[in-house]
Design goal:
This protein is α+β, with helices and mostly antiparallel strands. It has helices spanning 33-57, 124-138, 198-203, and strands at residues 9-17, 20-28, 64-75, 78-88, 96-105, 156-159, 162-166, 181-185. The strands form 2 sheets. Strands 1-2-3-4-5 form a 5-stranded mixed sheet. The chain is flat, with a radius of gyration of 18 Å.
């Protein structure tokens, strides 16, 4: 096994202040220190963006906030993680959770957007949207209105040999559904995936 395919070391950092406890990841020990710095700075910015988003959406009062993360992929030099932030301010009816995700190449430090995963000019929005429409029908997922298409920069993460497209609470479904997630096999996307992107790396069987 090549060194660059070994799992990346992940350290847990904590933001702790009254009524706020947030755990978030930082990568460590990368051969490319600039890559390590870029990934960690982006993760820190996302954590702060989630905090800001919560304070903008909560009513005035004593807000309780909790943050956590889940590593979705840590192999073949591709690191993918989701960041969750839950907050509740009495007397709101219920709390609110937001999610962000990062998928990066640990060798170069590149943080991928959704369009980076596909060949230039490919109609990835239609391909992904059609797959999601089928899943919504087959899985009987209730939507607030008929689903039309994803955003070109839709939220996603990579998990082994699948691309997972997800939506925020209330984005396309009622609150009680939670975060609707749609796994799509990388093999179903092979005709349009970028040969230099993370999906191509995950699609190889070596």
């Amino acid at each position: 096994m090549e060194m660059n395919q070994l799992p990346t070391t992940v350290l847990t950092r904590t933001i702790s202040r009254p009524n706020v406890t947030i755990y978030y990841p930082q990568v460590a020990g990368l051969a490319n220190r600039q890559a390590e710095q870029n990934i960690n700075q982006t993760l820190s910015r996302y954590v702060q963006d989630l905090i800001n988003q919560q304070y903008e959406s909560q009513v005035p009062g004593t807000t309780e906030m909790q943050g956590s993360y889940e590593i979705k992929n840590n192999q073949r030099g591709i690191f993918s993680v989701t960041l969750n932030n839950y907050a509740y301010t009495p007397p709101m009816a219920h709390g609110m959770t937001y999610m962000m995700s990062l998928t990066a190449d640990v060798q170069t430090g590149q943080v991928f957007s959704l369009r980076d995963l596909f060949k230039p000019g490919s109609d990835y929005v239609k391909v992904l949207s059609d797959n999601i429409k089928t899943q919504i029908a087959n899985r009987h997922i209730p939507t607030l209105e008929p689903f039309k298409a994803i955003r070109p920069d839709q939220d996603f993460y990579v998990a082994d040999k699948a691309l997972v497209i997800y939506f925020q609470l209330y984005e396309i479904t009622p609150y009680y559904v939670g975060f609707p997630m749609f796994p799509i096999s990388v093999f179903d996307l092979e005709p349009i995936i970028s040969e230099t992107g993370p999906l191509s790396i995950m699609a190889t069987n070596s």
